[in-house]
Amino acid sequence: MSHLTAEQMQLRESAGAVADRYYADKALEWDAAATHLPDEERRRLGELGYLGIAIGEQWGGSGGSLMDALVVVEEVAKRCSLPAFQIFEANTGPARVVELYGTEEQRARYLPEIVAGQATMAISISEPNAGSAATDMLTRGKVDGDTIVINGQKRWCSGAGAAEYYLVYLRLSDERGAAGIGAVIVPKDAPGLTFGPREQLMGFRGVPSADMFFDNVRVPASDVVVPAGGFSRLFGAFSIERLGNATMSLSLAQAALDRTAAYVQERQQFGRDIVEFQAVQTQLADMVMQVEAARLLIWRAAMSANPLPDVGQVSVAKCFANEMAKRVTATAMELHGGYGYHREYHVERYMRDAAGWAIAGGTPAIQRTRIASEYLGRRFGQRR
C-alpha cells in the first residue's frame, strides 16, 4: 500500500470497519432478495460522508480526490456490493458530470441531495440498438420554448425505477453522430416517463435495471447539463466512472482471493491442508499477481486525474481489471470445489457480478480499441 498516504490508509481502515459493522452480514441476504439498498442505509452512507468523498465542499462533500473515493469503494465492496454501488455512483458516476459541467444552479440543486443520501442520480446511455455504438442513439430532445420535449427509449439503466434522477444522454440537435448528442437531467416523476419490468440478471442483484420510455417528457431547458456537441466531454467524464467500475471488479477479485487463501489453509484432502499441494500454491500465486497488477493499474490512472484521468490509462485499467476479476473468481471457484458452487460461500456471487462489470461501462473489446487508438495516436472508425 505504499502508494497511499497516511490519510488514505486511515480512510481505508475506517471504511473496512464500517462495512464489517453494517454490511458484511447483509451481503447474502440482499443478494438473495435482489432488493435495492434500503433508503435508510443510503442515508447512513450520506451521514458517514461516503457519498461525497470526491464532491466539492461547497456542495456538502469532502472535496477529496478520486483516489480517496476508490479506496472506500474497494473496501466496502469487498464486504457487500450494494452500499458500494451507491458510493461508486455518487463519487464516480453522473453526479460528477454535473459537478464538472453543470451550471451553478444545477450543482446547488442536485449535489447536496446526493451527498446526503436523500437522492440518487443514475446514468442512462444505452438503447436497444445503441450499446457499444453509443452514437447510434435515437432518443431525442426537442426545444419547445423554455422546455425540452423528450421521446425515445433507453435500456440497461442501472438504477432505473429506483433512482430519483437520471442523467440522460440524447440527441439535442439534428446533426448526425456525436455532434448532436448532449445530456439532460430527468426526474423520476416526470410526466410521460415510464419504466419497463425489472430485468432478471445473472448478477448485480439488488441493482435494478429496466427500460425507460419517454413519451413527450418535458423538462426545463435549464436542466440541460451538456448541450449538443458535448459528447466528447461526456465520455471524458465517463472515464471517472470506468475507474469506479474497475475498482468494483478489483474488490470482487480481492474478496475471492481472501476467502480462497483462508479456505485452502483449512480444507484437508489426503490428510494434508490443500495449500500444501504445489498446484494449489501456483494457482493462488497467480491470483495474487493478477489482483495486485490490477490495483496498480487502477491507482496509476486515478492519480493521473486532473480533474479527468488519462483516457488510455483508464481503458488499460478497466480492461485488465474486468478480465482479471473473471479469471480470479473462476480460480476461486475451482479451488473451493463443490463449496464454491454453494451460495453460502460467496464465490458464486463474485463470479456472477464479475461478469456484469465486464459488460457495463464499455466491454473489454471496446476498451482494446480505445487502448490501441490512444497508444498509436490514431482514431479508428468501426463503421463501413
Detail the topology: elements first, then pairings.
Layout lengths: L5 H17 L4 H7 L5 H10 L17 H14 L1 H12 L1 H8 L2 H13 L4 E4 L15 E5 L2 E12 L6 E7 L9 E7 L5 E3 L13 E12 L3 E3 L4 H34 L3 E2 L2 E2 L4 H26 L7 H26 L10 H13 L4 H13 L8
Parallel strand pairs: 1-4
Antiparallel strand pairs: 2-3, 3-7, 4-5, 5-8, 6-7, 9-10
Task: Describe the protein.
- Belongs to the acyl-CoA dehydrogenase family.
- One of its GO terms (molecular function) is flavin adenine dinucleotide binding.
- Keywords: FAD, Flavoprotein, Oxidoreductase.
- Residues 5-117 form the Acyl-CoA dehydrogenase/oxidase N-terminal domain.
- It is a single chain.
- It contains 12 helices and 10 strands.
- It is α+β, with helices and mostly antiparallel strands.
- It has 3 domains: 6-119, Butyryl-Coa Dehydrogenase, subunit A, domain 1, CATH 1.10.540.10; 122-229, Butyryl-CoA Dehydrogenase, subunit A, domain 2 (Beta Barrel), CATH 2.40.110.10; 232-376, Butyryl-CoA Dehydrogenase, subunit A, domain 3 (Up-down Bundle), CATH 1.20.140.
- Helix 8 (231-264) packs antiparallel against helix 9 (278-303).
- The longest helix is centred in the middle third of the chain and has 34 residues, at 231-264.
- The mean pLDDT is 96.
